[in-house]
C-alpha cells in the first residue's frame, strides 16, 4: 500500500514539474513572438533606469503581456539586463527580446540634418532650428558666441562648417552638431592643404578655403571645378581682379533680390571683387571637399574668363575678345544667374572673369 502511495506521489510530482517546465518554456518562448504595432513607437530610457523599471514600462506600453517572463529572462541571461539610456524606435514585428537586445546594444534612434554645399552659415542655423528632436542650445546665440563655443573665438563663421549629412540622437544639441561640422572642416582642410600643389597664390589654408567657397558658388558642374579654380588662380597670379558675381551677391546681403545690375557692381563692399583686389575677407559659403581640392589643384590651362552657357556648364576663354564673343552668344545683358558673369558694359569689361 505504501509503495503504491509513494509511486503515485512521485508521478504527481513529475507531472507537476513537467507542467511547470512547459509553462515556463512557453512563457519564455512568447518573448520571441513579434509585437504588432500600428506605427513605430519611440521608447525613452532615462539615464539611471534599472532593468526592472524598463520591463515595467514595456508591460505598461503593452509590448509584453507579463513582466514576469522578462524578469525571468533577465535572471537566465544577466548580460541582457545591461540596458543603455537613450531613445529607441520599436518597429512592428519586433519581439520583446528584440527590443531588449536593441536597448542593450545602445542602438538608439537617430535623426538627420543636412548641411548642403554652397549654403551660408545663416542657412545652417535655419536648418538646425527646424530639425526635430534636436536640442536647441544656440537659438539665441550670436555668431561670435557660437564660434567661441566651437573653439574658434573671434573668427568668422562663414565657410567653417563642413557640408554633410549629420546623424544625431535626441540627447544631442545643435551645438554638438556644429562642433562636429567645424572639426570635420578643420580636418578636411588640413588634409587637402598638406597635399596642395606648389606655386599657388595662397599664404594660408584659410585663403584656399575662401577660394574654394567661390568655386562652390560659381559652378554646379563637378567636372568644371578645377577649371573655374584655374581661372581665378591665374587672375590672382597676374594681379587681375577676380570679378565674380557670387562675391558681389554675398556682399549685398538681404538687399539681393535675384538680380544684380551695374550699380551693384560699382558699389563697394569688402566682398565686391569688381572693386577689391585679391580675395574677399572670408569665405562666402560652405565648400565641399571637391571644391577645396579644386582650389588646391587648379587646372593648368590658360583660360582667364568664363561665361555660363545656360545649361549648368560654362564656356571658358583665353582672351577678352573670345570672352566677349561668348558673352554675346550665351548671356548678353543677363545677370539673373549668379553662376554666370558676362562682361559688364563700360570700363570694367576688360577684366571680367566669369
Percent of sequence in beta strands? 5-15%
Give the helix/strand class. mainly alpha
The chain-level mean pLDDT equals 86
Order of helical and strand elements: HEHHEHEHHEHHHHHHEEH
Domain unit count: 3
Could you describe the largest sheet, including whether it forms a barrel?
2 strands, antiparallel
Evaluate the radius of gyration.
Answer: 32 Å
Question: Helix count?
Answer: 13
Count the beta strands: 6
Distance between the termini: 112 Å
Helix content: 40-55%
What spatial order of strands do you see in the largest sheet? 1-2
Overall 3D form: elongated
Low-confidence spans: pLDDT under 50, at least 5 residues? Answer: 2-18, 335-351
Organism: Marinobacter maroccanus
Protein name: Endolytic murein transglycosylase
Region (Disordered): 331-354
Enzyme class: lyase
Account of the 3D structure:
The chain is mainly alpha-helical and 354 residues long. The chain folds into 3 domains: 25-105, 2-Layer Sandwich (Dna Ligase, domain 1); 111-190, no CATH class; 197-350, no CATH class. The protein has 13 helices and 6 strands. The chain has helices at residues 2-29, 51-60, 67-76, 96-105, 121-130, 143-149, 174-194, 205-218, 225-237, 245-252, 262-266, 289-296, 320-330; strands spanning 41-45, 86-90, 111-114, 165-168, 305-308, 314-317. It has a two-stranded antiparallel sheet. A two-stranded antiparallel ribbon has the order 3-4. Strands 5-6 form a two-stranded antiparallel sheet. The longest helix is centred in the N-terminal third of the chain and has 28 residues, at 2-29. The chain is elongated and about 85 Å long. The relative contact order is 0.09. It comes from Marinobacter maroccanus. GO terms for molecular function: lytic endotransglycosylase activity. One of its GO terms (biological process) is cell wall organization. It is an enzyme of class 4 (lyase). It catalyses: a peptidoglycan chain = a peptidoglycan chain with N-acetyl-1,6-anhydromuramyl-[peptide] at the reducing end + a peptidoglycan chain with N-acetylglucosamine at the non-reducing end.
Amino acid at each position: 500500500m505504501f509503495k503504491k502511495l509513494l509511486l503515485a506521489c512521485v508521478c504527481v510530482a513529475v507531472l507537476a514539474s513537467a507542467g511547470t517546465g512547459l509553462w515556463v518554456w512557453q512563457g519564455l518562448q512568447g518573448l520571441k513572438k513579434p509585437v504588432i504595432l500600428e506605427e513605430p513607437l519611440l521608447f525613452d530610457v532615462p539615464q539611471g533606469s534599472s532593468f526592472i523599471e524598463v520591463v515595467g514600462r514595456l508591460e505598461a506600453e503593452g509590448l509584453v503581456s507579463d513582466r514576469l517572463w522578462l524578469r525571468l529572462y533577465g535572471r537566465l541571461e544577466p548580460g541582457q539586463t545591461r540596458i543603455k539610456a537613450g531613445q529607441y524606435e520599436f518597429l512592428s514585428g519586433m519581439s520583446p527580446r528584440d527590443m531588449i537586445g536593441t536597448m542593450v546594444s545602445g542602438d538608439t534612434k537617430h535623426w538627420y540634418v543636412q548641411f548642403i554645399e554652397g549654403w551660408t552659415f545663416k542657412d545652417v542655423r535655419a536648418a538646425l532650428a527646424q530639425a526635430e528632436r534636436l536640442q536647441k542650445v544656440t537659438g539665441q546665440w550670436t555668431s561670435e558666441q557660437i564660434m567661441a563655443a566651437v573653439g574658434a573665438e573671434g573668427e568668422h563663421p562663414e565657410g567653417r562648417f563642413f557640408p554633410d549629412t549629420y546623424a544625431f540622437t535626441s540627447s544631442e544639441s545643435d551645438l554638438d552638431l556644429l562642433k562636429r561640422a567645424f572639426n570635420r572642416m578643420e580636418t578636411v582642410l588640413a588634409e587637402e592643404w598638406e597635399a596642395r600643389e606648389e606655386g599657388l597664390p595662397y599664404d594660408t589654408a584659410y585663403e584656399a578655403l575662401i577660394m574654394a567657397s567661390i568655386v562652390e558658388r560659381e559652378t554646379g558642374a563637378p567636372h568644371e571645378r578645377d577649371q573655374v579654380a584655374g581661372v581665378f588662380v591665374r587672375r590672382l597670379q597676374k594681379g587681375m581682379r577676380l570679378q565674380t558675381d557670387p562675391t558681389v551677391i554675398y556682399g549685398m546681403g538681404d538687399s539681393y533680390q535675384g538680380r544684380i545690375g551695374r550699380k551693384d557692381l560699382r558699389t563697394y563692399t569688402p566682398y565686391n571683387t569688381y572693386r577689391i583686389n585679391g580675395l574677399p575677407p572670408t569665405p562666402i559659403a560652405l565648400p565641399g571637399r571637391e571644391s577645396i581640392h579644386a582650389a588646391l589643384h587648379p587646372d593648368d590651362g590658360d583660360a582667364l574668363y568664363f561665361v555660363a552657357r545656360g545649361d549648368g556648364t560654362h564656356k571658358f576663354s583665353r582672351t577678352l575678345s573670345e570672352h566677349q564673343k561668348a558673352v554675346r552668344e550665351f548671356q548678353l545683358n543677363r545677370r539673373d544667374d549668379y553662376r554666370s558673369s558676362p562682361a559688364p558694359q563700360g570700363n570694367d569689361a576688360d577684366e571680367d572673369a566669369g
